Amino acid sequence: MTDWCKLNLEFLGGPHDGHSIRCLSMPPVCFFLPEEEDALSVSVYLFSSLVGDQLKYRFRGYQTITAQEAKQLNHFEEKT
To answer: Computed from CA positions of residues 17, 20, 21, 23, in that sequence, does the dihedral angle turn out positive or negative?
Structure first.
C-alpha cells in the first residue's frame, strides 16, 4: 500500500465524538458503530468532507438493527 492511501478518519458529534482512526484503504461512505448500552442499536456516521488526509464523518443519529445484523457487525469487529 502506498503512502497516499493512508487516511485519518474522524467522527464528529454523537457518542463517538472526537474519535479518530488511521485507515490504509478507501473507507465506506457510512459507518454503523455498535452501542455498548443496547446491542440492537448503532450510531450512524456519514461522510461529510475531506480536508487534507482527514476524512470527516458526522453523526446522523441512531438506528435499530436486527439480531442478525448485530451478529454480523460483531463478526466484522472480531476480524478487524
So the answer is: positive
Closest of 73, 77, 57 to residue 65, by C-alpha: 73
Residue span of the structural domain in which 14 resides = 3-79
Helix (H, G, I), strand (E, B) or coil at 43: strand
* pTM of this structure: 0.80
Contact present, 34 and 15 (Cβ < 8 Å): no
Question: ∠74-77-80 over CA atoms, to 5°?
Answer: 155
Residue whose entry in the numeric block shows the C-alpha cell 493512508: 6
Reading the chain (80 residues) residue by residue, the pLDDT tens digits are 445 567 899 999 999 999 999 887 778 899 999 888 888 999 999 999 998 889 999 999 999 999 999 888 877 666 55
- What domain count does the chain have? 1
Residue with cell 479518530: 20
